[in-house]
Amino acid sequence: MNQEARIDKWLWAARIFKTRTMAAAACKKGQVSMGGTQLKPSRMVKVGDIVDVRKPPITYSFKILQTIEHRVGAKLIPEVLENVTKPEQYELLEMSKISGFVNRARGTGRPTKKERRALDEFIEDTPVFFGDFEFDLED
Predict the structure, then answer these.
(1) CATH of residue 32
(2) Percent of the chain with pLDDT over 90
(3) Which stretch of 50-54, 100-104, 111-115, 124-128 has the lowest confidence by average pLDDT?
């Protein structure tokens, strides 16, 4: 087994990202770091490194237990990485889930079911005039 692996391949193989392209894009956007330094997709990582992955609203931290470059089954993930994310990050995640749509100002964004029904009812009740109208613009 290799002692080192590319970070984009490892992130994909460890099932942190769905595709290798997404893992590389996250590296290029600066969402993947190690020790406060942003990583390029080609950066080599080794066993014992701690990688931080920012997936808003939280930053996950993973300790590398095995350097792999081929995707493994979900049951084998505990052998590949250890999740060392701080509990405060999970609290942030819960807070964002709870807040959800509570802060949405009325009238902004997508209409609710009730607002949509009211719009449909208003449109149906509005009289529509069709016919030939003559306008005398010279007066």
Answers:
(1) 3.10.290.10
(2) 53
(3) 100-104
Q: Which has more confidence, 101 or 38?
A: 38
Question: Kind and range of the H or E element at 63?
Answer: strand 58-64
Cβ-based neighbours of 121, under 8 Å, separated by 6 or more: none
What's the number of domains the chain is made of?
A: 1
Q: Is residue 100 scored above 60 in pLDDT? A: no
* Residue 25 belongs to domain spanning: 4-88
Please indicate, yes or no, if residue 130 is contained in any of the structural domains. no
- Residue 125 has, within 13 A of its CA and on its CB side, a CA count of 6
